[in-house]
Amino acid sequence: MAVPEISEQEFEREVLRSELPVLIDFTSTRSTQCRAVAPEVDAIARELEGKAKVVKVDIDRSKRIAATLRIQAVPTFMVFHRGRPVAAEQGPIDRKQLRELLDPFLPRAEGAIRAAELAQLIREGQVVAVDTREGPAYGRAHIPGAVHLPLDEIEGRLAELHMLPGAPVLYCRAGDRSKEMAAKLAEEGVPVAFLEGGFLSWEAEALPIERPD
Predict the structure, then answer these.
(1) Residue ranges of the chain with pLDDT lower than 50?
(2) Which one of 3, 52, 152, 178 has the lowest number of neighbouring Cβ atoms within 10 Å?
(3) Listing from the earlier edge strand, what are the strands of the sheet with 167-171?
(4) Dihedral (CA of 72, 44, 1, 23) sign
C-alpha cells in the first residue's frame, strides 16, 4: 500500500483527530535518505493496517507544520497519539525500529503481554509461561521454565493451570491460537494472559531459549 501524503489542511483531520495512533514520516523529494527508507515505511503501514495510521508530510510543501514541530532534518518520524506528539526519531530507521516507536501506543487485546514484559515478569517470579504447542515443538525449544500444556487439553486441566507457582501466560507459535483460547476462557470467567506474537516474538527479541538435549 502507498503511504498517503497529507497537506497542512488535512493535518487536523488526519492526525490530531485520529482515533488510531499516527506515524508521520516527515520527508522531502530532494532527500536520497527519504527515498531509501520509503520501503520500510510502506512495510510498517501494511503490517499495522487497522491498528495505526501512517502518513507522509513533505516539509517543502508543508513548511508551517515542519516549523511548528521543529523538524530539523529528514527523514524524521513522529508518533501522534490522542492528538499529541508522544515519540520521535530522526534519521533513516528500519521497520523494526518504526514498530518499536509505535508499539507503546498500539491497541492491545485484553490479556496481551509482550515478550519483553513476559521476560521481566518471569524474572520477578510473578508468572509461569505455558507452552501450548505440540510436544515435539516444545521439546525442540521453549521459553526457559515453561510448562507444557497442549492447547486442546487446557480446558480439561484448568485446576492444574491455576496451581502453578505464578499466574499462567499462554503462548503458541505465533500468538493467534493462544489469544483465541485466552478470549474463550475469559468468556467462561477464567481470565488468562497470553504472549502477543507467540514464541516467534520471543525469538525475535533474542530472549533466552531452552533447547533440551
Answers:
(1) none
(2) 152
(3) 112-113, 193-195, 167-171, 127-131, 147-148
(4) negative
